[in-house]
Design brief:
The complex is a heterodimer of chains A (about 375) and B (about 450). Helix content of chain A is about 60%, strand content about 0%. Chain A contains 15 helices and no strands. Classes of the chains: A mainly alpha (about 375), B alpha/beta (about 450).
Chain lengths: ~375, ~450
């Protein structure tokens, strides 16, 4: 080790000619090859799992939803303009070309900020944005103007993550924060009936097509939803308007299977969120607030996507195992509560998760305090 | 076993290179080194000079604050060198052993007939006192304190650990004498924990005058700290002592023969050890004397005194630790695997998680190396740590409290109950590659400083 000090540092190493680019070069280098670092202190052997691996599994789990979302963008367009001739690949291609710019904007803006801040801090680039950047295009309306998306992404990464110190230090889910930014800053672009379907210039809806999402019919009850042509199968398969990736329960379930099988996301949060939603959904029908059956709520809007991919974010969810049950249950329950009592904004999932993100540390604090109190009591009686 | 304590959480790492149950030779050391750093909480004062003659049991070092605590030579010979590091920190006292193998005679005694003070006095004079480790903090026991109880683990679940039945099976009488002596130092009794899986097969279940406990489960079920937390958790202000089974036998031998005899069978293990087996040796032997075990084709090799999770990297020119009876040889993993993190399979590599396929083939042993397999990140994942720690504490909260240096929180989250070794598996599985053991040690050091 001693003789290392006398040799010149490499071009991109600290102290080298282009050493200020250390973080960036290091990020690409370790992206391609496992770093050569060996353990210095403590355990000499280390597991092969690292944060890159954890993140890439979430990205893979999102791929079915993303691919289906692309096809669905094309499919909804065909329905809206009355196109019945475009085949499967043509439909997919149309959606792909519509969604691709969203991805480019999301990754260029987000990773740009991540790399810059890592450079400034002289740290390694975090992998967290691989997932956030993949999520953001899937939870926005396909027609969102790209400059808005860029602004929202920048806001989410800077104020949702970097000001707290980067991945692992944030308390709000950055992807959801981007969506919340869009929703509160440009409400006209995030709700209503026109934004969910991507049209070419000059195209108009054919008669009978409203472009409204199934959730928009929520206040009209189950008859309203079904009357608009959304039966349970179309909701489950996802052939309905909505945010790019959130419509297909089948695709989301595929992702959920991978996340649970690999143990990357918490099945406890997913289960309890579904439980919470069913609970409030059932209460809603029991007290006559709505006639939409509780299980229908699971198929609508962003609930499934949020439950599987957003609520389970390990950084912003509850950290304790018991806390995860409470956190998940409240996410589900709050989501349906917002849907039932806020006709102006029917999609409750975003707000439910963001609110519970804020409360997750409190839940953990209560769980940990209870555990410490129980331990103290046990120690007194020993 | 009706009173068996089964620990569900834990992990046995399938590391390759377990020592075969055979002893291939005696190491006749050219140099024996005493390393003051092995003894936590001791500020060493040198009592010998280069060229001095010592016998096995002659004082070499003592503690500056409590000069009655001695560290003695494990072998007779001549003090060859005193090695100092930065700021003249004492690193090693090297002794060149002679052929005579003489030892100071402290006089054989029947431990059961002695008083606590007599036992304490003999242990201090012989230098075996430092084998008593105090909890909390994992430092050498304070002779002025009477501990609540003394705990001994009769099995070791660490990766490739020496088989206690093989290395100590014929020393049951020594262990009995050691237990009898230790029993005089506490009113709470000596607690001996056995492995349920081998309860009938081990000679140690016949040790008398102990309070027996039976554990089953994966590593770290054999860690004495984990056992204490299930038998009688350490409260604030309490002190317990722990002794390894190996040194209990040495204490027993002292009482039976009147001589310090630290000779031990050492397991030479690890994926790059050639024909891993046991050797008869002493603490402080040079790693150079074990070079025959080192696979010369393996490239850079890390010599670890102890096991792969908690041992010390002593280097090829280093020496075996005073407490250790295991050497682990690992390959320095500086190779760079292309897109390693993105592959569905990584054959020959082990993950405790299910993020790689196939997940831990039954019976397969893996030649793990020292690569960290990723860069250091903030804590992201929350549920991997608890799965490998069978204690009633929140490991990440404790680690963060140590990082923050928050004494109140460290106390609440259980700093009194743990030593770094208990969280070694948390460090192993950590996808964020934090140095959890070092962080815990830093927290313990802060506690010692602030609570003194």
């Amino acid at each position: 080790m001693e003789d290392n000090k006398t040799t010149q540092p490499g071009l991109f190493e600290k102290g080298g000619k282009l050493g200020f680019l250390h973080s960036t070069v290091d990020a690409f280098d370790t992206f391609l090859r496992v770093p050569a670092t060996v353990s210095r202190k403590g355990s000499h052997i280390r597991d092969i799992v690292d944060i890159k691996r954890v993140m890439i599994i979430v990205v893979i789990a999102l791929i079915p939803a993303a691919l289906f979302g692309m096809w669905n963008v094309g499919y909804q367009h065909n329905l809206a303009v009355g196109d019945t001739v475009t085949g499967f690949w043509g439909t997919f291609w149309y959606g792909f070309l519509k969604v691709l710019p969203l991805y480019i904007v999301s990754y260029v803006v987000g990773l740009g900020i991540e790399f810059t801040s890592a450079q400034i801090k002289g740290e390694e680039v975090n992998e967290g944005y691989l997932v956030s950047g993949f999520l953001i295009p899937l939870i926005v309306p396909v027609d969102v103007p790209l400059w808005m998306l860029a602004l929202a992404t920048a806001f989410a990464v800077l104020f949702g993550k970097e000001v707290f110190g980067g991945t692992g230090m944030n308390f709000l889910n950055p992807a959801l924060l981007a969506r919340a930014f869009l929703f509160f800053s440009y409400p006209s672009k995030m709700s209503g009936s026109e934004v969910w379907i991507a049209l070419r210039k000059g195209e108009t809806f054919v008669d009978g097509v409203t472009g409204a999402t199934p959730l928009a019919h929520m206040s009209e009850g189950i008859a309203g939803i079904q009357g608009a042509g959304y039966d349970w199968w179309s909701l489950f398969a996802g052939t309905v308007p909505g945010s790019v990736g959130e419509t297909s329960i089948i695709a989301i379930l595929l992702g959920a299977c991978l996340l649970i099988a690999t143990g990357v996301a918490s099945w406890k949060i997913m289960c309890s969120s579904v439980l919470g939603a069913l609970c409030v959904g059932w209460l809603g029908t029991a007290f006559g607030v709505t006639d939409v059956p509780a299980w229908y709520q699971l198929l609508l809007g962003g609930f499934a996507f949020g439950t599987v991919f957003m609520a389970t974010d390990p950084v912003t969810s509850a950290q304790t195992e018991c806390g995860k049950w409470i956190y998940g249950f409240l996410v589900g329950a709050l989501c349906i509560t917002v849907r039932l009592f806020n006709p102006g904004y029917a999609e409750g999932m975003m707000l439910a998760i963001l609110l519970m993100n804020t409360f997750a540390p409190l839940i953990d604090h209560c769980v940990v305090s209870a555990s410490i109190a129980r331990r103290a009591k046990k120690l007194r009686t020993v | 076993m009706s009173n068996n304590i089964h620990l569900r959480r834990g992990l046995d790492i399938p590391l390759a290179g377990a020592a075969a149950l055979k002893t291939c030779g005696v190491i006749t050391p050219g140099t024996i080194a005493l390393k003051p750093e092995d003894f936590k909480g001791i500020v060493p004062r040198l009592l010998v000079r280069e060229g001095d003659k010592v016998l096995a049991g002659s004082p070499v070092l003592c503690d500056k604050q409590r000069p009655e605590i001695l560290i003695t030579a494990p072998v007779s010979g001549t003090v060859e060198a005193v090695v100092r590091g930065e700021k003249r920190k004492l690193l090693e006292v090297r002794i060149a052993p002679d052929a005579a193998r003489e030892a100071v005679d402290f006089g054989a005694r029947e431990a059961s007939g002695l008083s606590g003070d007599e036992v304490r006095d003999l242990l201090l004079r012989s230098g075996l006192w430092v084998s008593l480790v105090q909890r909390p903090y994992g430092i050498v026991a304070d002779p002025a304190v009477t501990p609540k109880a003394i705990f001994i683990s009769a099995f070791n679940t660490a990766p490739l650990a020496a088989n206690p039945e093989y290395v100590l099976g014929d020393q049951a009488e020594d262990i009995q004498a050691g237990v009898d002596a230790l029993g005089k130092l506490t009113r709470g009794g000596v607690h001996l924990s056995l492995n349920e899986a081998n309860y009938e097969g081990t000679p140690f279940h016949r040790i008398e005058n102990v309070i027996q406990h039976v554990f089953s489960g994966k590593h770290p079920a054999g860690n004495v700290g984990v056992q204490i937390s299930h038998i009688a958790p350490i409260r604030k202000g309490e002190t317990v002592w722990t002794v390894s089974l190996l040194l209990t036998a040495a204490i027993g031998r002292l009482f039976r023969t009147g001589k310090v005899d630290l000779s031990r069978k050492v397991a030479v293990t690890g994926p790059v050890a050639k024909d891993p087996a046991y050797v008869d040796a002493l603490p402080g032997i040079a790693m150079r004397d074990l070079s025959a075990f080192c696979d010369s084709t393996a490239g850079d090799v890390r010599f670890i005194s102890g096991d792969a999770l908690t041992g010390t990297n002593v280097g090829a020119e280093g020496f075996l630790g005073w407490f250790d009876n295991q050497v682990t040889l690992l390959h320095e993993g500086t190779e760079r695997e292309v897109l390693g993190w993105a592959k569905p399979f990584r054959f020959g590599k082990f993950s405790a998680t299910r993020t790689y396929l196939p997940n831990a083939l039954p019976g397969k042993r893996y030649a793990l190396d020292t690569n960290t397999n990723g860069g250091v990140r903030a804590f992201v994942v929350s549920d991997v740590y608890g799965k490998v720690l069978p204690m009633d504490i929140f490991p990440v909260y404790l680690t963060k409290a140590c990082l923050a240096g928050d004494i109140d929180k460290m106390e609440k989250f259980g700093i009194y109950e743990v030593l770094p070794e208990d969280l070694a598996l948390c460090e192993y599985v950590d996808p964020s590659k934090n140095e959890i053991q070092a962080i815990i040690q830093q927290g313990i050091d802060l506690m010692i400083k602030e609570m003194a």
